[in-house]
Amino acid sequence: MSYPAVVSVQSRECSPELLERLSGSTLFPERPVGASIVSVVRRGGGSLLYVTAPAMADADEQVDYFLGLLPEEREERRQALRDRVEVGSLDDDTARWLSTKLLDAGSPAAGALRERIHEFVTRERAAGADVRLDCFEPSVNLEKLAASLGVPTDQADASAIPLGTKAAGRRIFRDAQVPLVAGTDEARSVAGLAEGIADLVDSGHRRIVIKLSSTEFGAGMGNALLDLGEIAVPPGREEAVAAVAAALPAADLVDAKLTWTRYAGMITTSGVLAERWVEGDEVRSPSFQGRITEDGTVTAVSTHDQVLGGAGLTYVGSRFPADAAYRAEVLRLGLSVGARLVENGVRRGDYGVDFLAVREGTEWQILGCELNLRATGTKHGFTMATALLDTMPDAEGELVVDGSPRVYEASDAIADPSLVGLRPSALIDAVRSSPLHYDPVTRTGVVLHMLSALPTYGKFGAIGIGRDREESARLMRELRALALALVER
After folding, report:
1. Which of 225, 9, 22, 28 is CA-nearest to residue 103?
2. Spatial contact of 452 and 424, defined as CB atoms under 8 Å apart
3. Torsion of Cα atoms, 376 then 97 then 134 then 288, to 10°
4. Which long-range contacts (CB under 8 A, 24 or more apart) does 82-86 make?
5. PGM1 C-terminal domain location, by residue (predicted)?
6. What is the rounded average pLDDT of the residues 96-112?
């Protein structure tokens, strides 16, 4: 009987300039390491070679921590599990994609790591393993690596990358009969953008979200908010377009390190569109995560309510599952989008759909927002939770353990300047010895991730698994307090 052997290269292939500006972004590929260890090695009985660049901080302590989340009493078994986890690292903290670092033909260290990967694949295949390359998103680079290894990737072909743009997402939403936010067609110039926004203004919309269309911009970092407020927009077409164009440089960019001049310069290559800013008695951002298999089958994986920062435009965390008030509709529409992706030739991989849930009185309306043809920021938390709980969502999209529900809150951005310099091993020890540590008996508690960002950036991630929303939120609050207490002593 075969077992899984996974080479994990979680390369986030957005704009290298964006990676350079985002705090700790070079460490994003490390986020799923714990989830991979628990799901592939502890639950799956497999082997894992996890690739990082730069190297993990306190790597041995992190691996031992993740392996210990599900305790193994026999010493020989613990050692056997440890032998099935390898971490292959490059001492490279530049803002290049992880795949670019790994395939750098001029780097002896990268060449040595590629050879190590080949040896891992050869050894595991000879032992009867089902070997695969685990990726975050479609990648030309990683397809080349997979071909050299003779293994498949687990994401869509790189030829499908254009389907992940903002403009393509709106087209697929329309085909899938997903209600859409009022918006413009894609433009390739500031003048074209101004014309589209003028049409939105003519329809009565004065608060506008501007979005660079390319897949290079994740987590809302290609977005800007334009509030025309009391600005006079003349009724004549040419005059209205000119007034909008004059107002555009005052747009509030989510990426605060960009200027409007630089942003405008990206429009030609990225494309841009605009949508009305959605308002109501309450507005939330639920998301759907789906999976497409080789035979074209579309499966619902999970739903979440996203936690957004930066004027509601930047992803910082999530809560599982999405609210029951609209979860069924999110599942239905998410599956419909997946079916349209299959019609467009996608035959494998993760995809995510971001929605807006708008409440007016007691009624919720679900609107399509964005399509991601890749894994999303919710995946590592979900993989960790389901692997620890040893269950998957039921037909209602809930996690149930022995008849009792489990929910969780996840964050990649538990941060404070005072945490700079704190070692991952110190936080691991503190959590292990506290009541917050994940308990495999009660199946509640906190689990850490993205720990290598602590020493330099003063931030880390975690999920808090509880019996209800109040418990999971309390766990996350108390974890933050615990971390801060370590540096206040």
Report:
1. 9
2. yes
3. 10
4. 84/41, 84/46, 84/47, 84/48, 85/37, 85/41, 85/47, 85/48, 85/50, 86/47, 86/48, 86/49, 86/50, 86/120
5. 426-478
6. 97
| Weakest-pLDDT range from 87-101, 196-210, 301-315, 341-355 | 301-315
CA-to-CA dists, residue 393 to 93, 302, 350, 385, 389, angstroms: 37, 7, 17, 11, 11
* 367, two tokens: 């609107």
Kindly list the distances between the CA atom of residue 86 and the CA atoms of 8, 48, 117, 187, 389, in Å, as whole numbers in the listed order. 10, 6, 10, 46, 24
Q: Where is pLDDT greater, at 471 or 233?
A: 471
Q: DSSP class of residue 452?
A: G
- Work out the number of other CB atoms within 10 angstroms of the CB of residue 70: 16
Q: Which residues contact 285 (CB under 8 A, 6 or more apart)?
A: 305, 306, 308, 312, 354, 355, 356, 357, 369
The domains of the chain are located at 1-155, 160-167+173-177+280-372, 182-276
pTM of the model: 0.94
Distance CA 334, CA 354 (A): 9
Residue 139 CB: number of other CB atoms within 10 A?
26
The structural architecture, per CATH, of the domain 182-276 is 2-Layer Sandwich (3.30)
- Which whole number is the average pLDDT over 300-320? 83
User: What is the sign of the dihedral through the CA atoms of 380, 382, 384 and 390?
Assistant: negative
* Interatomic CA distance for residues 110 and 116, integer angstroms: 10
Please tell me the distance from the alpha carbon of residue 361 to that of residue 283, in angstroms, as a whole number.
Answer: 12
* Distinct helix (H) and strand (E) counts, the chain: 16, 18
Closest of 425, 433, 436, 435 to residue 462, by C-alpha: 436
Q: What is the pLDDT of residues 395-443, one digit of tens each?
A: 999 999 999 999 999 999 899 999 999 999 999 999 999 999 999 999 9
Local confidence band at 1 (pLDDT 50, 70, 90 cut-offs): low
Q: Does domain 160-167+173-177+280-372 have CATH number 3.30.470.20?
A: yes
Distance from C-alpha of 61 to C-alpha of 423, rounded to nearest angstrom? 10
What value does the mean pLDDT take over residues 316-328?
A: 95
Q: Which residues of 370-394 are buried (b: 16+ CB within 10 A; e: fewer)?
A: bbbbbbbbbbbbbbbbbbbbebebe
Q: Which residue has the tokens 């992706």?
A: 341
